[in-house]
Amino acid sequence: MDNWDEIRTAFQVARRGTVSGAAEELGVHHATVIRHIDALEQRLGVKLFQRHARGYTATEAGQDLLQVAQATDDQFTQLAGRIKGQGEGVSGDLVITSLDMLSHRLTPVMVAFQAQYPDLRIRYRTGDRVFRLEYGEAHVAIRAGTMPEEPDNVVQPFMAQRMSLVASAAYIDRFGLPDGAEDLPRHRFVIGDDEKSRAPFERWLRQRVPDAALMYRASDPRNMLDAILAGAGIGFVVQQECAAHGLTEVIPSLDEWSAPLWLVTHVDLHRTTKVQAFLRFIKDQMKTLE
């Protein structure tokens, strides 16, 4: 294909469903849209759209082409994000991603960093989905668990995420405290709703208490903390939250509950001024975080 404008036009027609909608999106005359579609269909020798009174609907051949066009559009969007990060100054977007449960520790650091660079806009992405650095979805990732092995990433050890097994005063008033680890099976627990979770502390708990004891399950760390505070059960929190919320450790924290954290950047952006400035800053804050 030597005319990407035609493919881009077809992509917008499929997205908007009408010639006029595509023309508005592309900033061209509707006659240009029709000409591009006709030329592309003639070049490929197939009909890409069914024309009807309500607009255009992609045929099976059109759907095949548009899947490639969508992927190409995504790639260009992600490339633009990567190029934006290659400027010399500390300004524009800085996209950082981590697990939800690290938010309370990382947010003050990001805000303090932004205070030093007021032209910087922070975009903080959390969740279970792994944001792809190679596609420009983030500049810096803080990952937990085993060391990431993607070949184009620069991986640096950051710190250990220590966990505590805790109960609230509301739970203790109702059920008391376990008499050691061997007494855990008779208590109630708050846990993540993913039975295949790789979190070492959740695997440890599932191996030691019956499934019936896992009485409150949630997918969001904030909701799990709320449930622990409300007395729904005993559960794990990041160690720093224990004192912050007046929670009681039910047994001493174990090393096997901890997970290493890694600072991950893409090799193409690792040496940019913005990324290096943030990496230096967050490393300097490590002792405070711990």
Summarize the structure.
Helix content is 42%, strand content 21%. It has 11 helices and 12 strands.
| CATH structural fold name of the largest domain | D-Maltodextrin-Binding Protein, domain 2
Indicate the mean pLDDT: 88
Q: What is the CATH superfamily of the largest domain?
A: Periplasmic binding protein-like II
Q: Unreliable segments (pLDDT under 50, ≥5 consecutive)?
A: none
Shape: elongated
* Spatial gap, N to C terminus: 55 Å
Spatial arrangement of strands, main beta sheet: 4-3-5-12-6
Q: From the alpha carbons, calculate the radius of gyration and give it in angstroms.
A: 26 Å
Question: What structural class do you assign from the helix and strand content?
Answer: alpha/beta
Number of helices: 11
The CATH architecture of the largest domain is 3-Layer(aba) Sandwich
Total beta-strand segments = 12
When the domains are counted, the total is 3
Q: What portion of residues is helical?
A: 40-55%
Order of helices and strands: HHHEEHEHEEEEHEHEHEHEEHH
Which strand-content bin applies to the residues?
15-25%
